[in-house]
């Protein structure tokens, strides 16, 4: 490991410390300004040319908005339509009536587990936020729990979505590791499901019951209001009210389309017309677009509802999330600068100094890369690429190695991750509250996943 590698790691660490200080100190700088300023300083100190720093910030912010921003915006529109027509309220009533308060986190984990099979973490959270806010609002009104009802309901959802995102194909992280290691998709998926269950339990309902009484988190009233309306006097679709089946279909159509894509990828050859169709309709942006159009059609266009009110409602839905979108873009810029500065290479060189089993080494490299660069994908690609020759040269359970790498990429999602800012701003959290929730949750999920990998490695391999 060279002196330059040590210098890069020190710059990256200092950048994260500076970012947190700018936001939480008496300066109270807006997170977008803090992220952009830190990105510029880190890029220049790391030796990037001035024009490269600017380009890296622009590309990072643009890529993140393209991948996450459109989905968040469409999700806000879908959530507004469902709230205006009593969809989320009806689903929430059904869940609450059929589930006791102590069992609600388990029910929400189950919903997120199913939704999380085909969906990215950020996409799944956007889809489920209306339900989370509605259930939490009803709990809060009933004074059924101590502390934050939004944390009590939200933590299990975050844990389930994170576990599925990092452990189970067809999510891009596990699939990338599978491709690099040339291992079996089915075995990795089975191992992933087994590892995800205890990770969800410990990181979700168990940790949620511990942390919820200790926090007073409550999202911005305008955001809660657009996703969760206590009363819907005159729905924008008229007096017609949807049944539970219609409500569930509207809420989960994007997830169904993405699941269709996931199944097609696993069951059909890439050249199949069905696979190509599934890839199109199952893309997160297209799936969310279809979801919004379907909801608008069900509630307004086919019911001769008020189209003008619908358009006004969708326009209004974007105002509360404007702050969320720009901060997510800033997080993407910071992550891209760290990647362009080759901080990931320094982490790889550092990891080569240690002698661990391939499973632990895969988890460790992926974890360090993800934490330092703010990108789980960088962590997975770097770890899988580094360990691919080792996996071919030594007897190792490659499906479990792919799973270990995916688990490592989940550890301590923090200020250089777009998902951190999505959770923080959506729930109206401080930096400390966000750290106690999403950062700790993902760390629990990551560590439990590694423990499960090591335990399953004691059993005969599946392939």
From TrEMBL:
UniProt topology in membrane: Multi-pass membrane protein
Similarity comment: Belongs to the GntP permease family.
Record keywords: Cell membrane, Membrane, Transmembrane, Transmembrane helix, Transport
Primary residence: membrane
Pfam families documented for this protein: GntP_permease
Transmembrane segments: 6-25, 32-50, 62-83, 104-129, 149-168, 189-212, 248-268, 280-301, 321-338, 359-388, 400-423, 435-459
PANTHER family named among the record's database cross-references: GNT FAMILY GLUCONATE TRANSPORTER, HIGH-AFFINITY GLUCONATE TRANSPORTER
UniProt GO cellular component terms: plasma membrane
Domain of life according to the entry: Bacteria
MF terms in GO: gluconate transmembrane transporter activity
Localisation per UniProt entry: Cell membrane
Protein name in UniProt: GntP family gluconate:H+ symporter
